[in-house]
Amino acid sequence: MVNIFLRIDINLFFSLLAFQKIVSLLHQINVNMAKIRNLKKVINSELSSVIEECYVWQLVNQEKAEKAEDVIDEAIAHFDNLIDRVNADNVQNVKNHFKNIKSDLKKVTVELLEKLPKL
User: Fold this and answer.
1) Packing angle between helix 94-118 and helix 65-86, nearest 10 degrees?
2) pLDDT tens across 46-63, in order?
3) Domain residue spans in the chain?
4) Which residues are CB-neighbours of 19 under 8 A, at least 6 positions away?
5) Which end of the chain has fewer CB atoms at under 10 Å, N or C?
6) To 5 degrees, how large is the angle CA 109–CA 111–CA 113?
7) Considering the entire predicted model, what is its pTM?
């Protein structure tokens, strides 16, 4: 009789342990997904602000408005590229991958904003 209860307790222990590991993994995934979601929001926000600056520049400099459209097109292309890189599945080193995306976002934003006064 004691042997039956011992087996039940051991099975219960291992099922609770497995449940705890599953909950832990789900929590890690949610944390990572939240970071990815925030990164996508930051990419959208930064490049949208660049596009807004281009629209303001077009309103101020109406004779050169067509030149700003090239910067807008470039910003949209960079946005698509960065979002594709965020959504990539086959990443070896995740931490470095996202660090590179963040640094590229900063570099692209600065480059695009520096192009605007030179038009």
Assistant:
1) 180
2) 899 889 888 988 888 888
3) 36-118
4) none
5) N
6) 70
7) 0.71
